[in-house]
Write a structure and sequence with these properties.
The complex is a heterotrimer. By secondary structure, chain B is of the alpha/beta class. Chain B contains 15 helices and 13 strands. Classes of the chains: A mainly alpha, B alpha/beta, C mainly alpha.
Chain lengths: 397, 310, 245
């Protein structure tokens, strides 16, 4: 082992004289953004591109001072402070400050009672959020929080954001303006999105788990089944949605009961079926892998104790294979949350409706109204399931 | 040739090598022995600066090893490790040619050198030059590892438990080969091992280390007859120190003129082997006979027993 | 094995034939259309669209490879080890972000067409290559690395002559995975006017023409499968066997 590997990195210990390279890059980017890019865009209505406004132009003196102080502290910490906890706290403080500054800008620039003006976050806002977010992520990663802590942190952040939104802090920002206009529809589409994502996952689990067990027990069937599922994976999502429309439409026409149940050629049905088919491969493959990894000794011991095959399967094998299977579920859930977005193209609803409508109307705020919840959902699902897998792994060991 | 002066290595609180000073003479083999954790490997790796010393220095032929970049220094020193570390994605010939290529030798010279080394190590160039390491047996891989270390004609060879992974029969042959090569090329060899027999067999000088400190550095016989530390005598083995002593002398060195009708032994046999043969056969003396049949002399049991004392 | 090769060549032949002479397949697709709609996509050249999609995917893959391998090299050096956890997290985020969302958010910044698609595919394709690069470097036998240093290779020589060649099989595997996933994902790019087979599919969706949908979907699927297979064969040919089978 070379001595270089043993040299302590700049993050451990009090490296006060050394500038943290990541911090340097982030501070430079953030400073440049503040100096040269607009903090918000003032749009007289939702379609026009908007006039740039810098941070100095939108905040009152004390607000500017406060914001500046926090950002300056953030820069100092990012450059010279090595303690990860301090970095995390300051970065999060920075994120909150910048968000509140944007909200304040919205309040300041919107004439009272006006509902047409749109104040959109500008490039500087996004760059600052990204830099502060990176700083926070870096610090958080270094602290190596356990699964429970991570989930707690997620819940706290979402809770804080929800509180602020409910309180109306961000009401004057363009995205929230769009929300105000589409509030009922948003709630409906959000519910639809969750229904489609989780529904297809549930169906895939119900079919995929037994299929996976079958593949594991009958190795001869394995290549055939896995190859078929693999082929399905290579067909692009929108193609599969579309291909299913015809047979489902025919089914609806032929069997009136199906139509009444909501199975139609357009809408949610083809999307759910397509997502179900897509979700099969990760679940089946991971079930097989998970079962393969279960120690032979444990299985034999269980048989030896007098358990029936069914009991061994449900009480031993599947339990031991659970972390791997859950990893498959995680992959599927994140994938599905993303793909349900595309389902909007065939009338399936979901938050994708806002995304595509926004693209069509060149209204970025509408796009964000759909995209931000989708991304948040995907992250949360990934984080929670990863934490669950980690907890199960630890219990196992 | 290699002067180690007050070499120390600390990792945080732990001192792994503690102020070691020794000199390795030109054209000799020094074996460094110790239990695991004694610091012997670290000491070796400070000679070619794979580990940088905390304090102290190493002089190679009078020059401080820190005067040039480490990687240039290492191109002049042969290095063999346990497990060989042959490049799995390169052929045997390419492996051996590594350092000559780094030094910029021309192709013809490299090819000639590769062929020469393969022949010295009894690996037919036609068969083995283009082979990949995984196609060779363990013993063959070990030989390629040594050949690779010798390719650029270094004057110093460092070896870290080079024979550890070999089975006993091949190991003995490999040790013989090393003695042969050292003699042939006039190299200075520093060898780290935890096997006392190996150290005694190969080393002109043996260094015993424990807990980072150098306990004794001397010829093997002196380690046996005048151990500087109880640990040294424990390492050399109190139970059969007499046998060890006998194994340091060959029949040819002490044969007395005279005839004998006892079993024939070659002059290269150690007194230990001769004694064993005499015990087995029950004879009183042995004939020391060359390979071509000429008689060198004889050795009696009594004469051998006398040698087994300090 | 022979059966697989036959299937492979047949699939390739079928694909090429369809792309070059699509109209000859019209009778096959006719039953899937209604009201006399055209059975074969006629609003653009299928071959051009397929190649355009392939081009976008390959370009994104090249960018992903350069960044992922470069990052992988950086974080496995002693000087870059501090960036490892962050890199891991960021690359993971890149894959968690639904490509559609990335696409949609990128449009206001870089406009419509190929650019947002490239960005989305680039972010999505980083993870397999990065993770495989890391594993490739981590599984280099330590004795080999020690021998390389001990023989006098400088750090750069060690990287180029030993570490990279040994990690290459795994890196290629990651690139292959990334490429294949992206061929399918690229069809979404057509929602933002990127040239590709998604256009065919969306036209089919809009006019309820199942024939169009099938054409777009099957060609993409076939391209993905052939690419997967082709790269696997290439890997086997190019790389000398390094371990005992």
């Amino acid at each position: 082992m070379s001595s270089a590997a043993l040299r302590a990195g700049p993050v451990s210990g009090a490296g006060l004289a050394r500038i943290d390279p990541l911090g340097a890059v982030l501070v430079a980017a953030g400073a440049a953004a503040l100096a040269f890019m607009p903090f918000v865009l003032f749009k007289s209505n939702r379609i026009v591109p908007g006039d740039p406004r810098t941070l100095a132009q939108v905040l009152p003196a004390w607000g500017l001072l406060g914001c500046g102080a926090v950002l300056a502290a953030g820069a100092v910490v990012a450059l010279w402070v090595a303690n990860a906890r301090v970095r995390l706290v300051v970065a999060l403080l920075g994120v909150a400050t910048v968000a509140l500054a944007a909200a304040a800008a919205g309040d300041a620039l919107t004439p009272p009672g006006d509902k047409v003006v749109r104040i959109a976050p500008g490039a500087a806002f996004w760059v600052l959020m990204m830099c502060l977010g990176l700083l926070a992520t870096d610090a958080a990663t270094r602290l190596k929080p356990g699964p429970a802590l991570r989930v707690l942190f997620l819940a706290a952040s979402i809770g804080a954001a929800a509180l602020a939104l409910a309180h109306g802090t961000f009401d004057h920002l363009s995205v929230m303006r769009e929300y105000a206009v589409n509030a009922v529809r948003f709630a409906h589409e959000a519910r639809q999105h969750l229904k489609l994502a989780f529904g297809s996952l549930a169906a895939a689990a119900v079919v995929g788990l037994p299929l996976g067990v079958l593949c594991h027990r009958a190795p001869k069937l394995r290549p055939g089944i896995l190859a078929t599922l693999n082929v399905i994976e290579t067909i692009p999502a929108i193609a599969l949605f579309g291909i299913l429309m015809a047979p489902l439409g025919a089914l609806a026409a032929a069997v009136p009961l199906a139509d009444r149940l909501g199975i139609r050629g357009i809408g949610a049905a083809p999307a759910v079926v397509a997502l179900f088919l897509y979700s099969l491969l990760p679940i089946v493959a991971n079930t097989v892998t998970g079962l393969k990894r279960v120690s032979r000794a444990a299985v034999e011991a269980a048989h030896g104790m007098g358990m029936t095959d069914w009991q061994v399967l449900t009480k031993v094998e599947l339990i031991l294979a659970l972390p791997v299977i859950l990893t498959g579920v995680r992959v599927v859930l994140v994938q599905n949350i993303g793909m349900v977005t595309v389902a909007a193209l065939i009338g399936g609803g979901g938050l994708g409706a806002f995304v595509f409508q926004g693209i069509g109307q060149t209204a970025i705020d509408l796009v964000l109204l759909g995209a931000i919840p989708i991304v948040t959902l995907a992250f949360s699902a990934a984080l929670v399931l990863d934490a669950l897998v980690e907890v199960l792994d630890r219990v196992k060991a | 040739m290699i002067a180690v002066e007050n070499l120390t290595k600390c990792y945080g609180e732990a001192t792994v090598v503690d102020h070691v000073t020794l000199t390795v003479e030109r054209n000799s083999i020094t074996a460094i022995v110790g239990t695991s954790g004694s610091g012997k490997s670290t000491l070796l790796r400070m000679i070619n600066r794979l580990v940088e010393p905390t304090s102290g220095r190493v002089l190679l032929d009078g020059r401080d090893t820190r005067e040039e970049p480490a990687y240039l220094l290492r191109r002049r020193i042969g290095y063999v490790i346990q497990g060989n570390g042959l490049f799995p994605h390169r052929t045997v010939a390419e492996n051996i040619a590594t350092v000559p290529r780094l030094l910029g030798w021309d192709t013809r010279r490299i090819e000639a050198r590769v062929r020469e080394l393969l022949e010295i190590f009894s690996l037919d160039p036609a068969t083995y030059a283009g082979a990949l390491p995984h196609q060779l047996s363990g013993g063959q891989q070990q030989r390629v590892g040594v050949a690779r270390a010798l390719a650029a004609e270094p004057l110093v060879l460092l070896m870290d438990e080079p024979f550890g992974a070999l089975d006993p029969i091949i190991r003995a042959k490999a040790q013989d080969d090393l003695l042969d090569i050292q003699r042939r090329f006039g190299m200075t060899v520093v060898l780290v091992t935890h096997d006392m027999d190996e150290a005694f067999r190969l080393g002109n000088q043996v260094a015993v280390m424990s807990g980072g400190r150098l306990l004794q550095y001397d010829r093997p016989a002196v380690l046996l007859t005048r151990p500087a530390d109880p640990f040294v005598s424990r390492m050399t083995g109190l139970a059969d120190r007499a046998m060890r002593l006998l194994s340091l002398v060959t029949a040819g060195e002490v044969a007395l003129p005279g005839a004998s009708d006892g079993p024939a032994v070659p002059p290269t046999a150690t007194l230990r082997e001769v004694l064993s043969e005499l015990l087995w056969s029950g004879a009183e003396s042995a004939r020391v006979v060359e390979a071509d049949g000429t008689v060198r002399g004889r050795l009696t049991v009594a004469a051998i027993l006398a040698r087994g004392r300090p | 094995m022979a059966l697989a090769s036959v299937l492979r060549i047949a699939a390739l032949a079928l694909l090429v034939a369809f792309l070059l002479w699509p109209q000859s397949f019209a009778p096959l697709f006719a039953p899937l259309t209604q009201y006399g709609a055209p059975p074969i996509y006629d609003q653009g050249n299928l071959l051009t669209l397929a190649l355009a999609q392939l081009g976008t995917v390959c370009l994104a893959a090249a960018a992903s490879t350069i960044v992922a391998v470069g990052l992988g090299i950086l974080v496995t050096r002693p000087s870059g080890a501090q960036f490892l956890p962050l890199s891991r997290t960021l690359v993971n985020i890149g894959q968690t972000f639904p490509p559609v969302a990335v696409l949609a958010v990128a449009v206001p910044m870089v406009g419509f067409g190929e650019k947002p698609t490239l960005i989305a595919l680039f972010a999505y394709g980083l993870l397999p290559i990065f993770e495989n690069t890391l594993v490739g470097f981590r599984t280099c036998p330590p004795a080999v690395l020690e021998a390389a240093s001990g023989m006098g290779m400088s750090a750069r020589q060690r990287l180029l002559s030993v570490e990279l060649p040994l990690a290459t099989p795994l890196i290629l595997e990651g690139i292959r995975l990334s490429l294949v996933i992206n061929v399918g994902t690229a069809t979404i790019g057509s929602t933002v006017a990127a040239k590709g087979l998604g256009e065919v599919i969306i036209a089919g969706l809009l006019s309820s023409n199942t024939a169009f949908i099938l054409q777009g979907g099957l060609v993409t699927g076939l391209m993905a499968i052939l690419l997967y297979d082709g790269m696997a064969a290439l890997e086997r040919r190019l790389l000398r066997p390094v371990t005992l089978d």
